[in-house]
What we know:
Helix content: 10-25%
Radius of gyration: 27 Å
Largest sheet: 6 strands, antiparallel
Amino acid sequence: xxxxxxxxxxxxxxxxxxxxxxxxxxxxxxxxxxxxxxxxxxxxxxxxxxxxxxxxxxxxxxxxxxxxxxxxxxxxxxxxxxxxxxxxxxxxxxxxxxxxxxxxxxxxxxxxxxxxxxxxxxxxxxxxxxxxxxxxxxxxxxxxxxxxxxxxxxxxxxxxxxxxxxxxxxxxxxxxxxxxxxxxxxxxxxxxxxxxxxxxxxxxxxxxxxxxxxxxxxxxxxxxxxxxxxxxxxxxxxxxxxxxxxxx
Length: 248
């Protein structure tokens, strides 16, 4: 037997359901509004600290992240910045920060710092080359590759191995491709037409002095976009610029 719900009760149920939907919608809209404001504050603080010439964006991760941020702490924040200039190279930074507090402190995080090849090429040509031979930088599909010429003008590709310490990057040439042949670096000096190249194949170490206090480089690799450093970020301090503290 089918029981009919009285019209007055149906109206009450409908009103209750409508109220519930409106409440849920209000919570979602409120969450989105708070989340947007918090993201703007985080992006402004990150822009102050990194001083990029490009844009900085931030996003809060997790369910109801904006409302959680009202308590003064966000679970996880992702930050993306473009054209962060260091040593004449414009870098792109993607960071994931954990336990970001309203006072600007965090519980640490990780970051990837990418140096695009079109930025690395002129820098290395000016600081590492002698100007007598062309030099371009790219990926050989497995690692960082330097493309140049021998003293006789023959195209040559130098394949490298990348190693890092907490605050440095070492680039070690391993093999050279010339005239279709792969030659170990140790044998390059004996290869015809290699004058001017063999002397430049010693490992080179670059000090990474512009890292935030306590940050450590944990790895490096070359991909389609550029040379990528992975960085471990410490928990704690807010940081700032030379001109003063940055906003939280």
